[in-house]
Amino acid sequence: MAKVPPDDLLQTVLRSAPRERLGTTRSRMEDVARLAGVSTATVSRALRQPDRVSPAVRARVDEAVERLSYRRNLMAGALASARSMTIGVIIPSMINSFFSATVEAMEEGLEGSGYQLLIGNSRHSMEIEERLVASVMAWSPAAIVLTGRRHSRETIRMALDADIPIVEMWELSDHPIDTIVGFSQRAAGRIVVRHFAERGARKLGFIGAMLDRDYRAVDRYAGFVEAAAEAGFAPPVEYRFEKRASAIGGSEALRALMAQHPDVDAVFCTNDILALGGLFEAQRQGWSVPGRLRICGFGDLEFAAASEPALTTVRPPRGAIGTKVAEVLLSRLGGKPAGQTIFDLGFELVARGST
Amino acid sequence: MAKVPPDDLLQTVLRSAPRERLGTTRSRMEDVARLAGVSTATVSRALRQPDRVSPAVRARVDEAVERLSYRRNLMAGALASARSMTIGVIIPSMINSFFSATVEAMEEGLEGSGYQLLIGNSRHSMEIEERLVASVMAWSPAAIVLTGRRHSRETIRMALDADIPIVEMWELSDHPIDTIVGFSQRAAGRIVVRHFAERGARKLGFIGAMLDRDYRAVDRYAGFVEAAAEAGFAPPVEYRFEKRASAIGGSEALRALMAQHPDVDAVFCTNDILALGGLFEAQRQGWSVPGRLRICGFGDLEFAAASEPALTTVRPPRGAIGTKVAEVLLSRLGGKPAGQTIFDLGFELVARGST
DNA sequence: TTGAAAGCGCTAACAG
DNA sequence: CTGTTAGCGCTTTCAA
């Protein structure tokens, strides 16, 4: 069995491969094959399914790869196999750290697997989501991850047509496109009512942002209202605004809400950042929290534990969702059958000083 | 000149193209060419450089594309041209909303251009950055965007070798790899000293997180210390910690700093989130802000304007950086020569209640 | 276990 | 302005 050739052959191999189109002398699989004394088919196998070639060949290929500092051209591979090492991920917002945290966890879970995330930002719009899915499809992704369970007809059609694993996340559904990893947003809204009731609240308020597009927030709202009715509360008074959730928005909302309904003594904000603004506003107005007013947020963003008073909030499994999505994906992409397709990761009410 | 054929030819075209490898009947450029009665080369031109084909042909191609709902296979195009419609973007953190905001603005600036961002998260590590650049390179990106001006030797080599536009951002440098869009972090640190001096501060403190890896924060620190000396202050006392910036970290840091140095009356936090924690801690401890203690942050994160007291901070051009990067990229990718390669977008000290 | 050969779907000279 | 002709670099039958 031929050994890896000496250095002068290495030189020859390198020289014989002028790469004019790339600005660079980048070696191709053929160079590796020649240096290792095998065919490109074997190199391909050695690289992707090492157990399907003899140990000796594998070693020679590895050495050749090393010496040429060869890196596979993924585009070519993707074209040939009609499948790329790409995973399309569509999230509604990059700035919102809910999804960033999920994506970070997903990246970590996928680390070393060779899969690359192609991240799209739908800005909470189903139309943009559709466009993003369409353009991601042009990359023949190995899988697609969508946020939420509501998508345009066309998005669903494309996803189904692609015949690849589709994972939805951050919500729950009895009929996921394929697999869904999340928790019940509605239940998250409900639990807040129970907590307020336990703390002796009498008149509930609600503050929400972007409810025309953020369906998860709408679900939390629905759960909140529903549970309030069941618990015998009067219908919660509410203040909503179109713009994305912000501390300033939260401050203004609370001020407006209290001006109109001075009897409110417990407010649920669909987002911790709104609650933060509320906390500051209460301080400015001299409303003691939780004495005069109880405030509960959603998200358990990092500052929630640090605020004064510390913020009671619902903690979604931000990182866990990403980790589980990665796990599901790896399993499916590794060829394992679907198995469980609905993963309820739950949530937790973190009671702190603000209620 | 032949018209677009009637429907039965359309049927034939569709039927004659079995796409078994994809789960789907997805048409190829050849189908479009046949239906439009031209060659694939012409279709390719009509799609990518519409002005280089006759209006009549363009119209027929467009119609054929429409009827077949044809979408170009980008992998194939990228392979053939050794250049993809991808732009690699490496940021140090996804959760940090500095960079998320920049990326969002960049996305908006690139909207409609057909370029897709391939986002990598280096977690503030040059080694990870290097790995990410290497794997992004496998996609033959049209350009690369890096954060900061410090990169590993190998990263720089790969970037240079690729012979594509390389944009660094969020810092300034006299010798960018290619082009740099940002502002002077050092100057940002300096201006805080001037502001503190104007407000009558006498003893300066500094709180920083992750200074072993966040070079931008280190530069701000250096500017702060340098300007403090020039202004005749005693060397600022400091508290640093390894973990990523957080409100809790900020609270703890301030408490520790003040315990050791009760004479400090003005603290610069390298990040608004640290300052937020500081604000809450001051409230808990009963230190009036700005009476007993002045606090200045960096970032002008959204909550800074909403807090009580509102937070004085340095506002970096978060969105503007992304917008400018997109503009530079579009120009360069459109074939225009480099021109200006250093873009100083400046920053602004936003004086509010906390100082 | 390995190799030969035939593409994957598109782009890019180069003629015409 | 348009078509012909070669690939881009890899994967994948199918035989050996």
TrEMBL record, chains A, B:
Residues 27-81 form the HTH lacI-type domain. It comes from the Bacteria. The keyword Ligase does not apply. This is LacI family transcriptional regulator. It comes from Chelatococcus asaccharovorans. One of its GO terms (molecular function) is transcription cis-regulatory region binding. The keyword DNA-binding applies. InterPro entries: HTH_LacI, LacI/GalR-like_sensor, Lambda_DNA-bd_dom_sf, Peripla_BP_I. Keywords: DNA-binding, Transcription, Transcription regulation.
